[in-house]
Amino acid sequence: MNVAESHQEIAFETHRFGTLSITEDKVITFAQGIPGFKNLKRFILLDHDSEGLFKWLQSVEDPLVAFLLTNPNVYKPDYSVPLRKTDVETLKVKEMTNLVSLVMVCFANGRVTLNLKGPVLFNSENMSAIQCIIDRDDYPSHFAINI
Are 128 and 92 in contact, with CB atoms under 8 Å apart? Predict the structure, then answer.
């Protein structure tokens, strides 16, 4: 993609935010899709609050699909994603400092929880992302938090 294409403006509809217009270079690509949404590959991140603590991962391809994400280290300071070689290769990581991990926020039965088993890894250098699955007992899929 050349520079002119990367700054091309695209407009799309969303259920939650109405019509959005962004430049193509802000689109995050999930090469493998997201589990349960394999056909959706293109998303953007939007701040939910002025502090940037919560972000929406909004599908560019489906107006109804948006996930609320947050930084897990705010609620579990020792949280880290064990990187597999295949994850690093899929994301084409050159510098580890370009990797950002966020987790999905869930609302169920009056509780707010984080899915620590399924972090989303973003490579800010090339705007690629994957959702990992971590098989560790100390990383539950419903880690309760207070907000």
Answer: yes
